[in-house]
Amino acid sequence: MREYLRRFKREFKQDFISGLLLLALIAAVLFGLGFWASWDTDLAYAPLIVMVAATVVTLVIAEYIFALQARFANPLPRQWKLAALFPWRAFGCTLALIGVDIVALSLALFVPFIRVLMLIFGLSWVFYAKSLILLWGFRKYGGYGEVERTTYVNANSGM
Prior knowledge:
Layout: H1 2-38, H2 45-71, H3 76-89, H4 91-110, H5 112-121, H6 124-138
């Protein structure tokens, strides 16, 4: 519990600012999509294509921004730069993360039993699957820098 509270206190400010920036980015993209989709002219197609590309980039950044912050210690601007560049560097990992999202959404939409399970258990199984994929993607980059010393005690260590 102490380790969790210590990390929570240390990372809260940066995480909160990243969340607000991501929320503003998503709001801007949704507004742009809604605005250009409502126009019924041929001139709206080019900006709409740009907005669809911006939506894809925003969703990919959202996949990585908090995982990168939890895994690596970086200042806020570098964290956002890494979140924008890492998905293209580890493209297989990015496709796997998007695949997990698509499978989870498809199961929730088309299988009523899975929908009930998602209401009961939440999205924890989706996040667990994504965490395994992220560990696979970060494996090549995690060997550098200072390793944080754990301060927790395993409850079963005395057995």
